[in-house]
């Protein structure tokens, strides 16, 4: 994440939190980010210097006007004017980071060989919330190299309950005994 994304995303968060719109704006930012991901040509078009700024601003109004918070629309226009709309994803990350910190939410990623069922995800989330004492936002990844078990990454730590991780721990302990 660039410094510009931190500054702009953090500033939008400060405004949104002050106006008690932080949750709503975060949700809308995620939707817009998804639109930009699915339509990279649209994002490229909004950053095209050959198109006059007024037309690019009008495109934003036509696409999002009346559908998103005015603060967020004006934020998009500001990024467009400053020629840094490509930083929007980083701004979203900073906004989410600040939101999570203020609301006691921890992002966690669980990795397994197969996708977990909804009830398994709920049970794991509840267990992690109990252990950490914080609200957990759990996402999952699948990795076929994980033979069995799960690996959870949370707050910069890794909780490795995979067979591979357990074998690695045993090997490490055996090497300590031999040395």
Written account of the structure:
The chain has helices spanning 3-18, 22-38, 40-46, 53-64, 70-81, 88-103, 118-132, 163-178; strands spanning 105-112, 135-142, 150-154, 157-160. The protein folds into two domains: 1-98, N-terminal domain of the delta subunit of the F1F0-ATP synthase (Peroxidase, domain 1); 103-175, 3-Layer(aba) Sandwich (Glutaredoxin), CATH 3.40.30. A four-stranded mixed β-sheet has the order 2-1-3-4. α7 links the parallel β1 (105-112) and β2. By secondary structure, the protein is an alpha+beta fold. 62% of the residues lie in helices and 14% in strands.
Summary tags:
Peroxidase, domain 1, elongated, hydrolase activity, CF(1), 14% strand, Glutaredoxin, 179 residues, alpha+beta
Offer a concise description of the structure.
The chain is α+β, with helices and mostly antiparallel strands and about 180 residues long.
Oligomer: single chain
Mean pLDDT: 88
Name of the top-level CATH class of the largest domain: Mainly Alpha
Q: Number of folding domains?
A: 2
Query: Largest sheet, described in full?
Result: 4 strands, mixed
Number of helical segments? 8
How many strand elements? 4
Which stretches are low in confidence, meaning pLDDT under 50 for 5 or more residues running? none
- The coarse overall form would be elongated
Gross CATH architecture of the largest domain:
Orthogonal Bundle
